[in-house]
Amino acid sequence: MNGRRGYARPLDGTDRSTARAEADGLLIEAVKVVRSTDPYLAGHFPEVTLYPAIFLLDGIRQAVGTELHRSPSLAGHLGPGGPGEDWLELGTLDSARVLRPMLEGDELRLRISVSPGRPGVLRAALDCRRADGEQVAKMTVELVRGGTS
């Protein structure tokens, strides 16, 4: 491989997101459409495409990392870090509940409320619903600053 390492294509945790700073943190709204053509879903189940709930965790991590610049106070709460150092890692999974299967064609709407936790930690609470408003999952996680990407 000529000294080069091969890496898998990263998971796209969300298709698009928007965010707004709030008095106590950040509110992120993101969308992810479940597609059987996504490379990480090929063969996940032989006859039906199910979106694994574990992928919601990476969706939270990616969305918060992408939108963190909208809340300098939250970024500061994570501790020192320079430009481009908003790579986040999952610290703790406090709670997770999957209420319905997430199937091919479902448009998942992730509403993520981010607030400061203990020093150096952000708390992110996810409410995930289908486009029809039916809740499919809810999770609460802690995020910490990771290494550079």
Shape field: elongated
List the uncertain runs: none
* Helix content, binned percent: 10-25%
Distance between the termini: 22 Å
Largest sheet: 6 strands, antiparallel
Mean pLDDT, to the nearest integer, reads: 87
Order of helices and strands: EEHHEEEE
- Beta-strand content bin: 35-45%
Question: Strand pairing plus helix content: what structural class?
Answer: mainly beta
Strand order of the largest sheet: 1-2-4-5-6-3
Number of helices: 2
Number of DSSP E strands: 6
Radius of gyration: 16 Å
Provide a descriptive summary of the structure in words.
With 149 residues, this protein is mainly beta. It has 2 helices and 6 strands. The protein has helices at residues 54-67, 72-77, and strands at residues 16-22, 25-33, 88-98, 107-116, 122-130, 135-145. It has a 6-stranded antiparallel β-sheet with strand order 1-2-4-5-6-3. A hairpin with a 5-residue loop joins strand 4 (107-116) and strand 5. It is elongated. The two termini are 22 Å apart.
List keywords for this structure.
mainly beta, 149 residues, 13% helix
